[in-house]
Amino acid sequence: MKKNIILLAGAILTLTSCSLSEELNDSITKEASNNILGSDQALSSAYQQLRSFQNNDNQLMLQEHPSDEMAGPTRGSDWDDNGTWRALHLHTWTPDNAKILGSWEQLYKGLAFAIDAQSFTGITASQKAQAVFLQSLYTFYITDIFGQVSMREPGESVSNLPSKNLKRTEAIDYAIQILEAQLANLPDGTAATSYIANKNAGNALLAKMYLNRAVYKATDATGKPQAGPYTFPAADMDKVITYSDAAMVGRTLQTNYFENFGPTNGEVSTELIFTAKNTNTEGGQIHSLSLGSLHYNQTPSGWNGFVALTDLYNKFEAQDKRRSASVPGFTDKHGLLAGILEGPQVDEKGTPILKRDSPGQLIFSQDFSLTNSTEEKGMRVVKYLPDYNKPTQASNDFVFLRLGDVMLMKAEALARKANTADALVIVNTLRVKRGATSLVSLTLQDILNERSRELYWEGHRRQDQIRFATFNAAVQGRTTVTDAHVLIFPIPLAKLAANPNLFQNPGY
């Protein structure tokens, strides 16, 4: 995937490593760094930090493991990791959970880069708008996960505590406000340049923030989140509809669903709205999203980890292309299907793939145990197709926002305004394109289910379940109904000690 990151028409952004940016941020003055880096390189660091989303750690896993889509079984001594994955699925995490701490550092690092880029001398209006978009994006994620946001203003000294400390009810309004103020200054973009924060991306992010705003506003005086069902103001839903319409301009549904996630997705997909860019020579760890699930004896050899829940698998019709599909140029060469892998596994010649630790064919079962699974237990997922040109340095771009998501956001907003007729048209347009049958009627539960079918393992599910008030319910592998305090995660203890403006979230 050979692409240049274009900040302005005709201008090439020179990439700077995050480690260099960290060193400069820690050891020299802002005036000196202005002279060394400049606004292009500073903004580059903010973009590069987006690659931290595309692996088996941190924010993406906080959105999927606690949901009804994913689990991490322990297989002997494999994948135990001190119970980290079990705690996420069982909703029993504590403030010292490594994935929670990693998510905090991941998100705040990106937020700092985005804010820092705005303070550089000579930054253009377009560059500033892109930096504000990234600031809004990180603020949204921090609000969603941790329920409070502490940040500095551009140019503020890092030797002082952050001056802006926002509660959950305030942070969402702030993230919306700063992005709306800069929306007109974002560059135009196409699906092929979706790795640049563009107007479509700004509109899509605003639609998502307005859609979830009612959830964050439902917080009591102590900071404890309130469980749904929530009341969604009509004015917010109108904003979702308006911004969704603007976000969809110039985008069309991809004929082959899995091309949205293949090694050339940034070049061929017509759905992409905002992505993180990867190439075979430069990029993140996106290969881990498939290898973390695939079995050792499959091609490429995986790590035999995360599995899909029956709660997800059973939502699909058999003919729905999103559940599982043979992809030309992929399945015929390597034997691997795309989507959810269930049942007997074979190679490209139809020869059975064998188990590693016991005789017989590898047959993925729907059942699993969080504490004691054998190697074949649990259905696997291949969402981002392995890049066989360089399996551990894949060129698949990581997808943050795309057309299918925005269509369903608009449908949900319409349904929450009791306009199920227009919402049904949108949902059926998507379903027919994906090979599923049309629905004859539509409920909010239907929309939640469709979001799972369309967006599984993309990092949306926890947020969606919370909005629809199903997150705390029992699922496969978790038999208990959990308390509302787990709707947000705890503040890591080390971060509380370092910043007295933070407070521990109730229930932890």
Detailed description of the structure:
This protein has 19 helices and 11 strands. The protein is mainly alpha-helical. It has a 3-stranded antiparallel sheet with strand order 6-7-10. It has a two-stranded antiparallel ribbon with strand order 1-5. The longest helix has 22 residues, at 125-146. The N and C termini lie far apart (45 Å). Mean pLDDT is 92; it is low at 1-36. Belongs to the SusD family. It comes from Flavobacterium glycines.
Attribute tags:
39% helix, 19 helices, two-stranded antiparallel ribbon, Serine Threonine Protein Phosphatase 5, Tetratricopeptide repeat, mainly alpha
What is the fold-level CATH name, i.e. the topology of the domain at 39-280 and 400-498?
Serine Threonine Protein Phosphatase 5, Tetratricopeptide repeat
- Give the termini distance in whole angstroms: 45 Å
Strand order of the largest sheet: 6-7-10
- The residue-averaged pLDDT reads 92
* Extended strand count: 11
Query: What is the helix/strand order?
Result: HHHHEHHHEEHHHHEHEHEHEEEEEHHHHH
**Gyration radius from CA atoms, angstroms:** 22 Å
**Helical content band:** 25-40%
Write the CATH architecture name of the domain at 39-280 and 400-498: Alpha Horseshoe
Report the sheet-strand fraction.
5-15%
**The level-1 CATH class of the domain at 39-280 and 400-498:** Mainly Alpha
Number of helices: 19
Structural class: mainly alpha
| Shape designation | globular
Uncertain segments are 1-36
Largest sheet: 3 strands, antiparallel
Subcellular location: Cell outer membrane
Keywords: Cell outer membrane, Membrane, Signal
Protein name: Starch-binding associating with outer membrane
Pfam families: SusD_RagB (PF07980)
